[in-house]
Amino acid sequence: MIRNYFSIAFRSIRKNKAFTAINVLGLSIGISAALVICLLVQYDFNFDNFHKDGDRIYRAVTVSTFADESYKNPGITSPMADALQKEGTGIEIVAPLRTEWQIKVSIPTTSSNKPVVFKKQANVVYADERYFKIIEYKWLAGNPAASLKDPYKVVLTSSIAAAYFPKAPASDLVGREIYFNDTIRSVVSGIVADIDKNTDFNFQVFISRATLETTSLKPRDWQQWNNTNSSSQLWMKLAPATTPKKVEAQMLALFEKNRHKEVGETGKTEHLLQPLSDMHFNADYGNYHGHMGHKPTLYGLLAVAAFLLLLGCINFINLTTAQASQRAKEIGIRKTMGSSKGQLIFQFMSETFLITFIATVLSVIMAPLILKIFGDFIPSGLHFNLFQQPLIIVFLLLLLVIVTLIAGFYPAIILSGYKPVTVLKNQVIASGGRSRNANLRRSLTVAQFVIAQVFVIATMMVGKQINYTLNKDLGFKKDAIITLSTNFFDKNVDNKNVFLQKLKAIPEISMISLSSNAPASGGSWSSTMKYKDGKKEIETDVQIKLGDTNYLRLYDMKLLAGTYLEPSDTVRQIIINQTYSKVLGFQNPQDAIGKIIEWDDKQVPIVAVAADFHQQSLRTPIKPLIISSWASSSRTFNIALQPQNAEGTVWSTAIAKVEKAWKEIYPEDDFEYSFLSEDIAKYYNSEKNVVRLLSWATGLAIFISCLGLLGLVIFITVQRTKEIGVRKVIGASVSQIVSLLSKDFLKLVLIAFVIAVPIAWWGAHKWLDNFAYKTELSWWIFLIGGVVMALLALITISIQTIRAALANPVDSLRTE
Amino acid sequence: MLLELKNLYKWVNVGGNRNFLLKDVSLNVNEGEFISIMGPSGSGKSTLLNVIGMLDQFDEGEYNFLHESVHKLKEKQRAGLYKQYIGFVFQAYHLIDELTVYENIETPLLYQDVKASERKALVADILDRFNIVGKKDLFPTQLSGGQQQLVGIARALIAKPKLILADEPTGNLNSKQGEEIMELFKQLNNEGVTIIQVTHSEKNAAYASKIIHLLDGRIEKEEKLS
To answer: Is residue A419 part of a domain?
Structure first.
């Protein structure tokens, strides 16, 4: 029986090539989108979900609140670990970690005196055996208890070991020497296998914690309760009966007991436990500089997949019910042969299954292509291999069944419901049931175009916002400026001055300024500052930028009052921004000049008020800020270039000369520079990805919907062939017939537009709320979106209607 | 007795008026009979045939088929009844275009859950008997009208029905083909199959043992032939 169903399914597929192609294409686009998106979503949701007792693993984090603004820090005050270890209850394991930012690794070699050097090594961490009790590794050499007990011991993962010591087996590596930052001599004491599952614990070099604790390398904040450093992290595994709340209360008690209290303080510090499962998604605390998941994006993607699948299913339902009358005869015959309704439903479902199966096979072929298109959206650890990922096969089978049911069930009911008598009397085109189907088809087409229309408007809206952010006046000049930073460990202050002098000699450079960073930068530095206006004290968390006297001039920033900074090696004067000036209560910027700000027990006078400029992306509002000169702590060179000449050689010459100077002074360090405008554009990478993704989704949604529309139009024109012939004979022109045929369909697109506008408006409104500075929701976006959609629909319709209208009426009438 | 119709009425309502398609039809059919139904267009011939075939409903009266009261049965039970005992032959052949001759003939067996090996044997038998073995892999559109009707009859007979209902089986055929089909019916009837056919042709009607004349939904007269 099934064989019979499939053979007839195959033959009817062959017979209706165009309709089958439309169905298969529409469904396979939906299925491959679902496949790829599920790969993505599954990848992110499978991070660190394999650890033993993972639900009991937490990271202690810090939330500090100043002046109504909270600052979230993945670190915790350093002494907390030892205090919890001694006095804490209900905690199985306390595992402090200290992360290291970009360390230089040198491997001495026997063959030459020069060691092999690896610069800027990330993923380095100070840990001890307690970490390895929480996060389990496979030990290839050494063991957790002994390997990290003493100072100057190092455990490597096998992948990094292979890079540092090529071709050496794990057992031979124990005892080999490694130098960190040229000064810390340490010995390899163990090798662990890399974690081969998805994990945010991407550490590759573990230096024994004793190295910090018992030597002169001990960080300044090691014993300081009042200092929170994001590199000082604390993981713990709670006992089964302990709730996070209990531990948080213990941490609060310990903190209050030990910290140094100040009079009149307004800030507040909390220590919270972040579940392990939250780390991969919570950008407030971050992971270890690895790829992170963004839940709203992932859910958005799932919605996109669902919509594309739905569009494919709608096509199927529309085309199949539209064609139903062609199958009516077969149904009638089968019923007189004794087929039950159930058997017919099963037959049509198996036909749907076959088409869906073809679509699925096609989408498996297309999936790698789509993964490539979305390359920068897709984390590097994600792979697609059908045969190594049995879950994908299960998922595809599930999808196959679900799509078959959604797409096939309604048409199957309709088809199997035909009464044999009416069919066999050739009265299929009877009234009642047919117009109900036609109404359903219309509603489904409208639904399709609502989805497509919302996609179109959303894409235009997101594009408009990105455009706005990229072109908005940030309050400073960002073009033709490059920035580069000197090595943090370079202790020789003279180097910077020598470099500065060399730069000044380059004619292609118009101005140079030394600063902590550019006006808008990813990183930020802030501190609590106080101002006494006679009556009360105003305490504010203030952003700090260091810049020499040229800083404001180079960036073309305006002074509202006061003068530029005088050159200084230490903080002697400050410029405040307008926002801070308002926070301090000055109506007129001029009033702020000469007032004293207390910063770290130092009293500093305000010499100027600068106009506000954006310190980060437009998502964050402008914050109170000071600019001060402090040459020894400024490591970033801001270089304004001369205007580009006609040949476009000025900038490249300048950069070449800067590089030459750099190499002379810092031969050890890589020359890395960037254009400020490009750095700023990078803040909006995630938005750009959203736009790209939306554009694709929009394109596909329009494509699928128009395919479905085309199918319907083909069907209708075939059905109305005789009518068209008669009208032409009577004297209708081609354009009259085209408009007659197109009118009904355009009406549907118009209805879809009316429904889509409020939905799109609401969605765009929600999304724009993410931005502190946003473009407005212009009416013309909706209008253009509607016109674009209508035009595309019209073109689709015309493909078929014009052909139908041009047909010679003699042919169509003769066949009747 | 194979089937019995008692005071059967069927009507449609057109603008408040009852329009009778069948009016007080009573009929007894015994096993082994060959009946022709005649009458002008619109007299209700096909309707009567469809009612007998249980493809169509009626509004009033009784219909007993092999001691089952058809008017009391649910649709599913009716379908079970006719698929077991009745074979249909149509004027327009009504073969499934997407299926080969072999598959068309096999279809009723599929719906009666006959085993594959048995199906094969039965279809082979009938192909042989109708001399269409060579055509078994062709599609209906590749056959002449007479051949298609032959396949249609083969299909109707495959499940060994007690009754064959034929709605103008020769209507689309030329006279020679028509004659062959009628000869076939005669032969089948001699083998014990009950046949009811609707026809316009006096000549074809004469193959039957009884002719029923319909007019405006009523049985006008029954004519016994020897």
So the answer is: yes
Instruction: Confirm or reject contact between A2 and chain B (CB < 8 A).
Output: no
Lowest mean pLDDT among A27-36, A386-395, A658-667, B2-11: A386-395
Which chain A residues are closer than 8 Å to B55 by Cβ? Answer: 335-336, 419-421, 424
Query: Is the pLDDT confidence value at B151 over 90?
Result: yes
The interface predicted TM-score (ipTM) is 0.81
Give tens-digit pLDDT for A544-562.
Answer: 888 888 898 899 888 898 8
Locate tokens 């400050």: which residue? Answer: A574
Domain count, chain A: 3
Per-residue pLDDT tens for A335-381? 888 888 888 898 889 889 999 999 999 998 888 888 887 777 777 77
DSSP labels for A62-84? EEEEETTEEEEES---TTHHHHH
C-alpha to C-alpha distance for A324 and A636, rounded to whole angstroms: 72
The answer to whether residues A512 and A638 touch, using CB atoms and an 8 Å cutoff, is yes
- Chain A CB contacts of B88 under 8 Å are 336-337
* pLDDT band at residue A524 under the 50/70/90 scheme: low
Instruction: Give the domain range for residue B194.
Output: 3-224
Residue A808 — pLDDT band, cuts 50, 70, 90? confident
**C-beta of residue A445 within 8 angstroms of C-beta of residue A321:** no
Return the biggest CA–CA distance within chain A: 103
Amino acid letter, residue B187? Q
Q: How many CB pairs under 8 A join A and B?
A: 63
Domain count, chain B: 1
H or E stretch including B26? Answer: strand B17-29
Confirm whether A113 is domain-assigned.
yes
The verdict on A408 and A347 lying in the same domain is: yes
Are A322 and A239 contained in the same domain? no
Same domain for A521 and A669? Answer: yes
Q: Quick one: A18 and A80 in the same domain?
A: no
Instruction: Compare CB distances from B94 to A15, A338, A424 and report the shortest one's residue.
Output: A424
For A10-68, how does the pLDDT look when each residue is reduced to its tens digit (9 = 90+)?
Answer: 887 888 888 888 889 889 988 988 888 888 888 888 899 889 898 999 999 988 876 66
Produce one character per residue of A469-478: b if its CB has 16 or more CB atoms within 10 Å, e if not: beeeebbbbb
Q: Between A15, A335, A343, which is nearest B98 by CB?
A: A15
B46 close contact with A: CB closer than 8 A: yes
Could you tell me the CATH number of the domain that includes residue B182?
3.40.50.300
pLDDT of residue B6: 93
Give the residue with greater pLDDT, A159 vs A390: A159
Instruction: Point out the residue among B55, B103, B111 whose CB comes nearest to the CB of A420.
Output: B55
**Length of chain B (residues):** 226
Distance CA A596, CA A602 (A): 10
Q: Which residues form the domain of A616? A: 481-682
The pTM for the full model equals 0.76
Which chain A residues are Cβ-neighbours of B92 within 8 angstroms? 424
Q: Averaged over B218-223, what is the pLDDT?
A: 90
Distance CA A514, CA A567 (A): 11
* A4, β-bridge pairs: none
Domain boundary residue, one of A430, A459, A492: A430
Cross-chain Cβ contact B46/A425 below 8 Å? yes
Last residue of a domain, one of A616, A648, A682: A682
Assign residue A770 a region: left if phi > 0, alpha if psi is -120 to 50, beta otherwise?
alpha
Token pair of A464 as six digits: 């408009």
Q: In what order do the strands lie in the sheet with A509-515?
A: A509-515, A636-641, A481-485, A673-675
Buried b (16+ CB within 10 A) or exposed e, A329-350: bbbbbbbbbbbbbebbbbbbbb
Cα of first residue to Cα of last residue in chain A, in angstroms, is 37
Contact B53, B214 (CB under 8 A): no
